Amino acid sequence: MTRVTAERIGLLINPTAGKHRGEQVGTRVADLLEAAGRQVVDLTGLDASRAEGKARAAVASGDIDLLVVAGGDGVAGLGANICADTDVPLGIVAVGTGNDNARELGLPVQDVDAAVRRILAGGVRRMDLGRVLTDDGERVRDYLGVLSCGFDAVVNERANTMLWPRGPQRYNLAILRELPVFGPIHYELTIDGVEREIDGMLVCVANGRAFGGGMKVAPAADVEDGLLDVVIVHDIPMATFLSVFPKVFKGTHTSHPAVEIVRGASIRIATERIVSYADGERVAPLPLTVEAAPGALSIVR
């Protein structure tokens, strides 16, 4: 681990994070960084696409030594994609709703001042990313935490069509609406060249341990081991699934015989009518291949 020595810090915020506190958070972060003698490069754009473009250009041109993002898991994942395979480290100010990735990395959550202190005084180390590819080998995106493509992804897809309620309760309501109509999904999996077919309720490919606001779906996952944890919940009655599902918040679901975890470096997942999600964001419909990208990201921890 090396110490942070960045003088030129790019700042990318999500204005809607933390119940639309993003702008105030961004101002506070900039004030603290400038008070510490750092030059802050504002990467705000008229929209998310323009902001991302500015950040990518700043990284590629060497105009910044460090990228700091402020928001939730989505903006942290965006920052990871921008800094992936570069020597520009990523610093995270976690002020979103879930903040799973920051929490699992041991970073301050919902504490702007503590997060900035960590960025200024912390260390930089390399971590793995999950890398999503099409069947043609085209890179779709990278992710920090967990790619989901089962019940949880179906719930996310439903929640994204709902206008009410806002925040975590929308996800909970989507669960209640999906439960009566959900059935097992037929998957074709290839894990490090080994092909298999299963009927299951859930398949996740985990780089980190948790997603969904504290669900420790892969409690033994390690972001520095160069491997991904494939979490499979095999076909079980819905009543059994409902009894197992709450255990994921403590990571104790892995003791159930229907839960299987396989480690691998390359995983292809194929099924119909399922859209994958990662770091709280919609990724792409299956089929997809996920590969471990060892040490692809420098992160301030």
TrEMBL record:
<comment type="similarity">
    <text>Belongs to the diacylglycerol/lipid kinase family.</text>
</comment>
<keyword id="KW-0547">Nucleotide-binding</keyword>
<dbReference type="InterPro" id="IPR001206">
    <property type="entry name" value="Diacylglycerol_kinase_cat_dom"/>
</dbReference>
<dbReference type="Pfam" id="PF19279">
    <property type="entry name" value="YegS_C"/>
</dbReference>
<keyword id="KW-0460">Magnesium</keyword>
<keyword id="KW-0067">ATP-binding</keyword>
<dbReference type="InterPro" id="IPR050187">
    <property type="entry name" value="Lipid_Phosphate_FormReg"/>
</dbReference>
<dbReference type="InterPro" id="IPR045540">
    <property type="entry name" value="YegS/DAGK_C"/>
</dbReference>
<keyword id="KW-0444">Lipid biosynthesis</keyword>
<keyword id="KW-0594">Phospholipid biosynthesis</keyword>
<dbReference type="GO" id="GO:0005886">
    <property type="term" value="C:plasma membrane"/>
</dbReference>
<dbReference type="GO" id="GO:0005524">
    <property type="term" value="F:ATP binding"/>
</dbReference>
<dbReference type="InterPro" id="IPR016064">
    <property type="entry name" value="NAD/diacylglycerol_kinase_sf"/>
</dbReference>
<dbReference type="GO" id="GO:0008654">
    <property type="term" value="P:phospholipid biosynthetic process"/>
</dbReference>
<dbReference type="Pfam" id="PF00781">
    <property type="entry name" value="DAGK_cat"/>
</dbReference>
<keyword id="KW-0443">Lipid metabolism</keyword>
<keyword id="KW-0808">Transferase</keyword>
<keyword id="KW-0479">Metal-binding</keyword>
<dbReference type="GO" id="GO:0004143">
    <property type="term" value="F:ATP-dependent diacylglycerol kinase activity"/>
</dbReference>
<dbReference type="InterPro" id="IPR017438">
    <property type="entry name" value="ATP-NAD_kinase_N"/>
</dbReference>
<dbReference type="InterPro" id="IPR005218">
    <property type="entry name" value="Diacylglycerol/lipid_kinase"/>
</dbReference>
<keyword id="KW-0418">Kinase</keyword>
<keyword id="KW-1208">Phospholipid metabolism</keyword>
<dbReference type="GO" id="GO:0046872">
    <property type="term" value="F:metal ion binding"/>
</dbReference>
<protein>
    <submittedName>
        <fullName>YegS/Rv2252/BmrU family lipid kinase</fullName>
    </submittedName>
</protein>
<feature type="domain" description="DAGKc">
    <location>
        <begin position="4"/>
        <end position="136"/>
    </location>
</feature>
